[in-house]
Write a structure and sequence with these properties.
The complex is a heterodimer of chains A (about 230) and B (about 210).
Chain A (H helix, E strand, L loop, with lengths): L2 H21 L1 H22 L3 H24 L4 H5 L2 H7 L4 H30 L7 H25 L7 H27 L5 H30 L1
Helix pairs in contact in A: 1-2, 1-6, 2-3, 2-6, 3-6, 3-7, 3-8, 6-7, 6-9, 7-8, 7-9, 8-9
Chain B lengths: L11 E10 L2 E11 L4 E5 L6 H9 L6 E6 L2 E3 L8 E4 L11 H11 L7 H7 L15 H14 L4 E4 L8 H16 L3 E6 L10 E5 L3
Parallel strand pairs in B: 3-8, 3-9, 6-7, 7-8
Antiparallel strand pairs in B: 1-2, 1-4, 4-5
The chains are: A mainly alpha (about 230), B alpha/beta (about 210).
Chain lengths: ~230, ~210
């Protein structure tokens, strides 16, 4: 397979998926709104004590982003499986993993990236101290694509089962926990004045590994689930 | 057409193919082959296993026993029959995209062939529907759009599952013409039907499946 062929296919896949997100933009905005609502409810429920909120802020932000990502997982391949597009992707002479990588990229860019961009605002809502914004943004920037990639593998495994939402969450959450621990933990460490860069390195290493392996694993899982 | 450049060897060679679902045999054992310039009509009533056979040939289902060789390469669970064009019961394109967008994507991920999406739409009688969303079209029109995707692929082997379903008389003639052109250009086609439709005007063999 030539490089230009791969790039053309990537453009076609990205173009198609972005168009689909735009045509169903009401559905696409849902996870972002969900995360914003969760974060907005915490100050209302806990009262407006700055110190208490600031202490909880990293965990709350991370959990909100993680759960909103979980909401988008089931839709990753569902509609393609239902209308036969996935069969056409499986039969394509192009590597399935490559097409899936593009699919995941669009999913991340349309659900996690907007959240990442408004994180400084959400952090303000929870009185997160200014110096902690840097580790929070870094950990989310590395952690959210990692969550999307792990989720893509799990969603591929459950595609053969209708109404797999609950199973999907049960399977994905244990794999999400390490990312959450390092991501939120890094911000908490920074808050206590401890070195926090180590957790960032670990997240970066995990992301590098997942970038290469997750699309391949997801492609293999899709083949198994559909055949 | 690049299909003419193929060696005169067999495109599809099926030996002792069996498929069982939950240990209940669906079809088989089947032995047949398909050379370039040939069409094979798989006949059988509802539930005879026609769709299952096509999905096994495409590699979308794993055979219980036997082997499928496509262009000299073994097709099995891990190695799908890449490079053959598959038309199933599902449309294979998105309802939220219009005809042109669907065809351009299909062309980009399929086996690249000659012709433009606009020409293909004209040919299948969807001229003027370029900007119509898939979900705003009838089942027959969606079938025609899937046929246009097939027309744009240069895959030598076509696997067509009930290609006549949902189509009007004009559409049935269209399917026959497309298959005729493809076979005349040195391709091969394997199509299933439950027997109520006219077969394409090409050298054709039939394979009967019984329930």
């Amino acid at each position: 397979m030539s490089t230009t062929g791969l790039i053309d296919a990537a453009k076609a896949q990205l173009g198609r998926d972005l168009r689909l997100v735009w045509r169903r933009r009401g559905d696409a905005a849902q996870p972002v709104l969900f995360a914003v609502m969760v974060v907005a409810l915490f100050p209302l429920a806990l009262g407006s004590e700055h110190e208490k909120l600031a202490q909880l802020a990293p965990g709350v932000l991370w959990v909100a982003v993680l759960l909103s990502g979980l909401l988008t997982l089931d839709s990753l391949y569902r509609s393609d499986a239902e209308d036969g597009s996935l069969e056409q992707m499986l039969m394509s002479p192009l590597p399935l993993a490559w097409l899936i990588a593009m699919r995941v990229l669009v999913q991340w860019a349309t659900s996690a990236l907007p959240l990442l961009l408004i994180t400084p605002l959400l952090a303000q809502l929870l009185f997160l101290p200014g110096p902690l914004l840097m580790p929070l943004m870094l950990s989310l920037a590395l952690g959210t694509p990692l969550l999307s990639l792990i989720g893509a593998v799990v969603a591929a495994l459950t595609i053969g089962i209708r109404r797999s939402g609950m199973l999907l969450s049960v399977l994905a959450l244990p794999l999400y926990v390490p990312v959450l621990v390092f991501g939120a933990g890094c911000v908490v460490a920074a808050a206590q004045g401890l070195p926090w860069i180590g957790a960032i390195y670990l997240l970066a290493a995990g992301l590098a590994l997942a970038l290469v392996l997750a699309p391949l694993a997801a492609a293999a899982a899709l083949r198994i689930a559909l055949t | 057409m690049p299909a003419t450049a193929l060696p005169p060897s067999l495109l599809l060679d099926v030996r002792g193919l069996c498929f069982a679902r939950n240990e209940e045999p669906v079809f088989g054992p089947l032995d047949f082959h398909l050379a370039p310039g040939e069409a094979l009509l798989v006949k059988g009533g509802n539930g005879a296993g026609k769709t299952t056979l096509l999905r096994v040939l495409a590699g979308l289902l794993a055979a219980t026993e036997g082997s499928v060789q496509m262009d000299g390469r073994l097709v099995d669970q891990g190695h799908l029959a890449r490079g053959c064009a598959f038309l199933g019961h599902l449309p294979g394109h998105k309802g939220e995209l219009n005809c042109l967008e669907n065809l351009r994507y299909g062309q980009a991920i399929g086996v690249p062939g000659a012709g433009t999406p606009e020409q293909a739409l004209q040919e299948v009688g969807l001229g003027g529907f370029e900007d119509t969303l898939g979900r705003h079209m009838s089942a027959g029109q969606n079938k025609r759009l899937a046929l246009a995707r097939l027309r744009l692929s240069s895959a030598p082997l076509w696997l067509l599952d009930e290609p006549y379903a949902n189509l009007d008389l004009d559409g049935i003639a269209l399917v026959n013409r497309l298959i005729g052109d493809h076979v005349a250009a040195g391709g091969a086609a394997l199509l299933t039907t439950h027997g109520a439709y006219a077969a394409p005007p090409v050298p054709i063999r039939t394979l009967e499946l019984s329930a």
